Amino acid sequence: MRALPNDLRRQLESAVLEGRHAAEAGVRAALSSLGVAEREKPAHLDDLQARLRRGLRAKQRQLGGEFELLVWDAAYEQWHRLLFARFLSENGLLRHPIFGAPVTLAECDELAVDLGEPDGWSVAARFAAQILPGIFRLDDPCVQLQLAPEHRVALEKIVAELPGEVFEADDSLGWVYQYWQSERKNQINASEVKVGGADLGPVTQLFTENYMVRFLLENSLGAWWAARHPDSPLVKEFEFLRFNHDGRPAVGSFDGWPDAVAEVTVMDPCCGSGHFLIEAFGMLWRMRAEEEGFDTVEAQNAVLRDNLFGLELDQRCVQIAMFAIALTAWKQGEGWRKLPIPNIACSGIPAKAPLDQWKALVDGDKRIVQAMERLHTLFRDADTLGSLIDPRRAAEMANAGLQKSVWDVDFDEVAPQLEKAAARETDDQATAVLGADAAGIVRAAQLLSTPLHKYHHV
Hints:
By secondary structure, this protein is mainly α.
């Protein structure tokens, strides 16, 4: 793993802090021009602007109702689309979403006029959002928000001036989120208020350095592998794996785990920016390639589908973790390709909308409606509880009825209806925003409901 040197880490920290200030200033100005904080719609807005305003106000309600929460969310989206585009570009992974051909930032600049974008950076950010699996929603009003030229250029300049080496290091993404939240963390700690909800992420997120991650994984997953495949060439790569004098792993052989790597699942219930998941991914796909004779792509796809799972309280961290996994797969594999969507979900999306609005998202099937009612109750305080939510225990305690548990309804029955609601062409932007959040909640609930014996927690 190529770690970011201290001097580049300091440059990255300065750029991220500057980027957050610039993004928030641009977002506040853009939201003000749309009158998002005002009760009445400004008369000068055209139909598209009015529609965007409704979506942003719906997003604000979903985030908890505070205007600052909307500013922070939109600023993050604006910054990270640019940042992820630069990561892809520097690693030769930026692609035209239709033709699949590689593109440079200079070529994006040439395409800007034809695509109706103001400049090449905007094109690159658009392409990045389109080719990344399940990370950015292009219909998210915070993504659709357009900054004024002076704010957009200021933000682009900060990203453009970062040294290229920053985007080649393997731990840069993890540092990005910690630096993004550092000022907010200091403010919360100084206030001495009870921490909960939107304040939990900034206060509790701490990037775990590589040697710690490797030590823990190599002395768990690595020890399991070494006990079953002592002659594997992979064992020699486990620098931190400790052995007894008899040559066996010091931590034991994990006899209760499955014998085949295909049956091992790794769940990080507080995955942050995905550092443990990235390292586990690199170990698991090599194990599957050796044990099952897969080529690199087959092994990586199998691990993404079957072995690797993550949950995280903060949706912004989920984006980084999913991007980090995709970037790692492309860099360790055969370059850019379409990937299975990683099994990473946000367990901290709160159900803030009224129950009637939730029930209106699905058709009249009583079982599905009851499933939505239970999820609404379970995830009411998800921004504080996160992965502590236990859907199965809640179902056991529920009163008997047409549906004895949330899981009497298969996820595949509920998810398409919610996705359809999120994509519905309607002037009711609250429906689209709510549908997207509800689909995310269902996905998190599915991972949270998996019996613990299925996961070997890191």
